[in-house]
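Hello,

Our lab assistant flagged a job as stuck in the queue for most of the afternoon. It eventually completed. Since we weren't sure the result was trustworthy after the delay, we are filing this so someone can double-check. Below is the sequence as submitted and the structure that was eventually returned. Let us know if re-running is recommended.
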Amino acid sequence: MTDARIHDLESNWEESIDEPLALFTSDDPTAQTGTFVIEPGERVPASGTTSHEGDELSVILSGELELVTDESRTVGPETLSVIPAGVEHYSVNRGDEPVRLVYTILGEL
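-- returned structure --
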């Protein structure tokens, strides 16, 4: 990359519904950053749990999300969640509005 890249998040939300939209990936170091919209009533993943080989950082921009690891927490706007590599987790949007977030995975997905 030879110059800064700027992403207008507002124009990416529609493409971020149903699955994350990667806006940046890197092989050295391995990383991915993108946007994700979780609709009201949606659970991610739909069943079971997920984990990643790298740490997952998410900034919640709007809405509220139940983040479940070994315990359950509610995260909302202006919140940064950090899920360490290998931690099994899932999220549920129990609210009435979509959750919009920006995520980064540091390491392998």
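-- support follow-up --
The delay was a queue issue, not a problem with the job. The result is valid. The chain has a mean pLDDT of 93. The two ends are 22 Å apart (CA to CA).
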